[in-house]
Design brief:
By secondary structure, this protein is α/β, with parallel strands linked by helices. About 40% of the residues lie in helices and about 15% in strands. The chain has a single domain, classed as TIM Barrel, CATH 3.20.20. The strands form 2 sheets. Strands 1-2-3-4-5-6-8 form a 7-stranded parallel sheet, sandwiched between helices. The model has no long low-confidence stretch (mean pLDDT about 95). The structure holds iron/sulfur cluster (SF4). Iron/sulfur cluster binds next to loops.
Length: about 325
């Protein structure tokens, strides 16, 4: 980074691949181990499992890729693409099936496969498949892990079904295989504070996540969190507080990490709460303007590693 207030993913793609690269979302018929046995999973999880824009899983991976690729090629004259397995838990299936899906994503002009999953749903056998696909086809791999927060207690309260240990193990494994690691974080989970935003930034920095994706929590009707929200069992922090947390998060984030987004798009329909009723880009722009005005930037507070307590003896 170094000239901008934070490392923008779009710039990474351009530098890394030498041109603009577009993500093509894929939806496959998969669920999540956290939604088994009648459980609705994480208390904020809706029926789409975090995937907003997608084609139906009635289409094969190849058909989905061809459709969206054709459209984007025409519209933006794009040449390279990332096949993005986005919704639910894209490793929650038998190995043979996983292998089949991954093979289907190998197509001309696909330079990378990105897949999102849970920290407790990744292990060596799945990574071995990804390694084979990657090596045979010269395709890069990104594994996206939902951490959401470094606050153990909040993970428990929202029913994530995993703790920090699983995230740490999964992150170490993904890095061991030489794949890119992307970590998802929600900075406005109820019960979390600014301290949790800072700790989350520290944790993803220590784990050497290559990318981070920040999301705003939205509350979809029909979820457990919607019930709690209507019963006023918690409050969501203000947009001003969210902006403050993003700025803090970025200050504590390693300057080596690329930021995929600082606030996600949220559906307005079927939600009780989404991005404070504002458009995501307006909030993003305000955060960026404030950072500029405050002379704040990614990594400004990144001096807590490398034996910071004995630094005075090391200079
Ligand atoms: S891990 Fe993702 S898909 Fe699974 S229950 Fe939680 S939000 Fe839903």
């Amino acid at each position: 980074m170094k000239e901008d207030i934070y490392n923008r993913y779009a710039l990474y793609l351009k530098e890394h691949y030498g041109q603009r690269v577009y993500k093509l979302p894929i939806h496959i018929a998969v669920s999540c181990p956290n939604r088994r046995n009648g459980s609705k999973g994480c208390s904020y999880c809706g029926e789409k499992g975090a995937g907003l824009e997608r084609l139906s899983d009635a289409f094969s991976v190849e058909e989905q890729l061809k459709q969206t690729m054709g459209y984007i090629q025409k519209r933006y004259k794009a040449k390279k693409f990332i096949a993005y397995f986005q919704s639910f838990t894209n490793t929650y299936m038998p190995l043979e099936q996983f292998y089949e899906y991954m093979k289907q994503a190998v197509m001309e002009n696909i330079v990378e496969i990105a897949l999102s999953t849970r920290p407790d749903c990744i292990g060596r056998p799945y990574l071995e498949i990804l390694k084979e696909i990657s090596q045979k086809n010269h395709i890069e791999i990104t594994v996206e892990l939902g951490l959401q927060t470094a606050n153990y207690h909040s993970l428990k309260k929202v029913g994530r079904g995993h703790t920090l240990a699983e995230y740490i193990e999964a992150a170490l494994l993904v890095k061991q295989y030489g794949f890119h690691l992307c970590t998802h974080v929600i900075l406005n989970l109820p019960w979390d504070t600014e301290l949790d935003a800072i700790e989350s930034a520290k944790l993803v920095s220590v784990m050497k996540s290559d990318f981070v994706k920040l999301h705003g929590l939205y509350i979809e009707k029909g979820t457990k969190m919607a019930e709690q929200y209507e019963k006023k069992e918690f409050e969501i922090c203000s947009v001003e507080e969210y902006k403050k947390r993003v700025k803090l998060f970025l200050q504590y984030l390693s300057p080596d990490i690329w930021v995929q987004r600082i606030l996600g798009r949220a559906p307005q329909e079927d939600t009780l709460f989404a991005n404070w009723g504002q458009s995501w880009w307006k909030i993003r722009d305000e955060i960026e303007q404030e950072m500029k005005a405050e002379k704040s930037y990614q990594g400004k507070q990144f001096h807590y590693l490398g034996g910071s307590g004995v630094r005075e003896f090391l200079v």
